[in-house]
Amino acid sequence: MILKELKLTNFRNYGSASVEWSDGVNMIRGDNAQGKTNLLESIAFLSTFSSFRKSSASELIKKNRDYFLIRSVFHALSTEHTINAAYSLDRRYRVSLDGEEKRKVNKFIGVLNTVVFSPDDLMLMKGSPDERRRFLDREIIQTAPSTQMIFHRYQKTLKQRNALLKGDHVSYAERMLDAYDHQLAECGALILIRRKELLEKLQPLVRLSHRRITDGHEELALIYEGGLDVFFKGKHRFDEWQDAFLQQLKMTRKDDFKRGFTTFGPHRDDIRFFINGDDIRHFGSQGQQRTASLALKIGELELMKGQRGEYPLLLLDDVLSELDEKRKEALISVINGKVQTFVTDTGSEKIFDDAYEFRVNNGNIKLLRD
Ligand SMILES: Nc1ncnc2c1ncn2[C@@H]1O[C@H](COP(=O)(O)OP(=O)(O)O)[C@@H](O)[C@H]1O
Ligand SMILES: [Mg+2]
Fold first, then answer.
1. Would you list the domain boundaries of the chain?
2. Alpha-carbon distance 258 to 312, whole Å?
């Protein structure tokens, strides 16, 4: 996939900007707080219609303006397309592909694919379980956009169920819970299936890239921590999974009342990373964690390539300076001539031959040389 042009209006600190990109590597340089990450954020927005920095869409609108607009021209499987996305203070999204607008934004998720690698990802192994779940779910949504609705419904039902569990009206809650449990089990079982499928595909790719980076000295394993194995054992049909989920909710209901929240479900699960059998979170050095993060990102890139038939755009936000020579080389060898890449950097080190060099200064972007 190749992003050819990007035009921003009122996005973050950009009033109006227009960029033509290189098909290869684009180096985006500039001091702190000038708009480098904002630029990557706008590109990633075109693939998920949300911010990878966990900001709400309204925070993306330039201060004192009432909308933002991102316009783009890109190539997917060698065909040219345009995708535009706008959001206004009255909470309206407008997204169009090749001039055609759809009422539901999520129809266009994953039309343009991106993989973001940021300093937060380097912390993924040590961070909170919530971030690791987000990693999985973001990936699922980008490759199967219709699942966004399922995540949404799950979260909504979970909130309502938890409110009942916390409330004082136990007999009322008991009556209502059956309906909520049913809904939660349906969405929850779907989410678990998607996560299971994703991990099965991701695992071998991540292992392979990890083995390459460590010259075969280390074996990385990803293990899903939660009800998954017990849950799927001996069951093959969706209604069986949904039923198992429902049974689990019934079993934990008493405990849930005591604790005031839902204790079972995909919102409580986690992924653990092991190197040669040891849990990275407890035993991994910082270097090992970085290698694992890198392997994970390369795995993600390869997975999308497998699913879409071409590489997604790779957005590297301030991570190159965090990687040592060996890891940097591993990453560069994957990118090299195959993946259109956008790299932000505060320094001036030349890392890639043939990169377009851009300079960002207070919401203005300028091509220095190509
Ligand atoms: N909605 C907004 N409107 C105007 N400016 C914004 C908005 N959101 C962020 N900014 C500004 O963007 C700058 C940070 O941009 P960022 O891309 O994160 O910087 P960096 O170049 O360090 O990656 C800050 O100066 C911040 O005030
Ligand atoms: Mg930044």
1. 1-113+313-370, 120-311
2. 46
Is the overall model pTM greater than 0.85, yes or no? yes
Q: What is the pLDDT of residue 324?
A: 86
Q: Is the CB of 36 inside a 6 Å radius of any atom of ligand 1?
A: yes
Q: What is the CATH number of domain 1-113+313-370?
A: 3.40.50.300
Q: Does the Cβ of 33 fall within 6 Å of ligand 1?
A: yes
CATH architecture designation of domain 120-311: Up-down Bundle (1.20)
Decide if pLDDT at 40 tops 90.
yes
CB neighbourhood size of 52 (10 A): 22
pLDDT in tens, 161-203: 999 999 888 888 888 999 999 999 999 999 999 999 999 999 9
Output the CA 61–ligand 1 centroid distance in Å. Answer: 11
For the purposes of burial, counting CB atoms within 10 Å of the CB of 190, is it exposed (0-12), middle (13-18) or buried (19 or more)?
Answer: buried
Alpha-carbon span 135 to 16, nearest angstrom: 31
User: Is 62 a pocket residue for ligand 1 (Cβ < 6 Å)?
Assistant: yes
pLDDT at site 230: 62
